[in-house]
Write a structure and sequence with these properties.
Residues 17-121 form the Acyl-CoA dehydrogenase/oxidase N-terminal domain. The protein is α+β, with helices and mostly antiparallel strands. The chain has helices at 12-30, 33-39, 44-53, 71-82, 86-99, 101-104, 111-121, 232-261, 278-309, 317-349, 361-370, 376-389, and strands spanning 125-128, 136-141, 144-151, 162-169, 176-182, 188-190, 207-214, 219-222. Strands 1, 2, 3, 4, 5, 6, 7 and 8 form an 8-stranded mixed sheet that branches.
Length: 399
């Protein structure tokens, strides 16, 4: 039995079309990315670009009013945007996974309702699911519930049209339910407390729920451990890897611009310009090669994720484990490569590139901030333990 709307694989035409859309959207975002980072304001205009471009509706099946795109296409769009504005790329990446909860946790009879409403409004989906916080609580109230509690790091909630909420049913918390809450529902309060080193426009502040009414029709379904539904977490981690890869690619492109703009050459060198200095060329060669290796692995797992998603309810625990471990390997090398690239590009761009108005620091600040989401050492543990003993980590919203 297949329980998924994503049963096909993308064509070259689809990939080319949406790569071009993401490139144009990224180009528009790049014009003032540094100024917006400094202002640290909510990204309202930037998110309108995502809606107007069609990227918000990319993964919604055509029969429900969307563009009928595939996961690999959306992940490539995240990567491309991250070269120019990693905060907006993060919001888009989370949006795809939050929106897909319609399928992962929802009854197929309700897919048309949720997807069609989302497509009509070009909804962006934020989340309140952070598992390291105390659970939000759903208290039974008539046919529905009352939602209370706080979630930190609620990416996209303050700027999204709707928020995906995961909350325990009752004080005992026997079940966790996924629900959808619109931005302006009574009792929803956004703290506006996101002020981080990087990813400053990712709208990742806290959200409080004060006796928020949750109607039966707001509930998508139970968050369980069925293999297909739990693919959402490898999907999230795959989005992270594409985000980091895009940041590395953006840092290299900006460093190339700055290197070519430099005057002259190092006084003790023999080259006539920095771009011809063998030490500069060596650094670029090393960083480009390592980034290309991450790109190859990311492309491999973007494609394989399409294939496993296409199996729907036929996905087995073994399939899920294979995706988890493969994507964990990618997450490790994407994290460490992007961090290394984003700080070592300063070696070839010189002291002038450290000026605040140049903004080369933005790439490092962004990847350093987001890569703290969950410890990369635990991803190494996942991979190593599985290789040595066959152990699989407990399924969580991190594994």
């Amino acid at each position: 039995m297949t329980r998924t709307p994503w049963t096909t694989l993308p064509t070259d035409d689809e990939t080319d079309r949406w790569d071009a859309v993401a490139e144009e959207t990224g180009r528009l975002l790049a014009t003032d990315a540094l100024a917006r980072d400094r202002a640290n304001a909510e990204p309202a205009a930037e998110l309108k670009l995502l809606k107007d471009s069609g990227l918000a509706n990319l993964l919604i099946p055509r029969q429900f009013g969307g563009h009928g795109g595939h996961w690999s296409t959306g992940l490539r769009a995240v990567r491309i945007l991250a070269r120019h504005d990693a905060s907006i790329a993060q919001i888009l990446s989370y949006h795809y996974c939050n929106q897909a909860s319609i399928v992962f946790f929802g009854d197929p009879s309700r897919w048309e309702h949720w997807f069609s409403a989302s497509a009509r409004g070009s909804w962006l989906w934020g989340d309140a699911v952070n598992p390291v916080d105390p659970d939000l609580v759903l208290t039974p109230d008539g046919p529905g519930y009352r939602l209370n509690g706080r979630k930190r790091f609620a990416t996209g909630a303050s700027t999204g049209d709707v928020t995906l909420v995961m909350a325990a049913e009752g004080e005992a918390g026997a079940r966790v339910l996924a629900s959808v809450v619109e931005h302006d529902r009574d009792g929803v309060e956004f703290a506006g407390d996101w002020d981080a080193l990087g990813q400053r426009l990712s709208a990742s502040g806290s959200v409080d729920f004060h006796d928020v009414a949750i109607r039966p029709e707001d509930v998508l379904g139970e968050v369980g451990d069925e293999p297909y539904s739990t693919l959402v977490t490898p999907g999230v981690q795959l989005g992270f890897a594409n985000l980091y890869l895009g940041i590395a690619e953006g840092a290299l492109a900006r460093a190339r611009e700055l290197t070519l703009q430099r005057r002259g050459a190092w006084l003790l060198g023999t080259a006539e310009h920095y771009s011809r200095d063998p030490f500069v060329q060596r650094v670029f060669g090393e960083l480009l090669s390592r980034t290309a290796a991450v790109e190859a692995l990311a492309d491999r797992w973007n494609t394989r994720f399409d294939r496993v998603i296409a199996r729907g309810a036929d996905v087995t625990a073994a399939d899920r484990t294979e995706a988890e471990i493969g994507i964990a390997k990618l997450k490790v090398v994407a994290t460490e490569t992007a961090l290394d690239v984003a700080h070592r590009v300063f070696e070839v761009t010189g002291s002038s590139s450290a000026r605040s108005d140049v903004g080369l620091d933005l790439y490092w600040r962004n990847v350093r901030t987001h890569s703290l989401h969950d410890p990369v050492d635990y991803k190494k543990l996942e991979v190593g333990a599985n290789y040595l003993t066959g152990d699989v980590q407990p399924i969580t919203l991190y594994t």
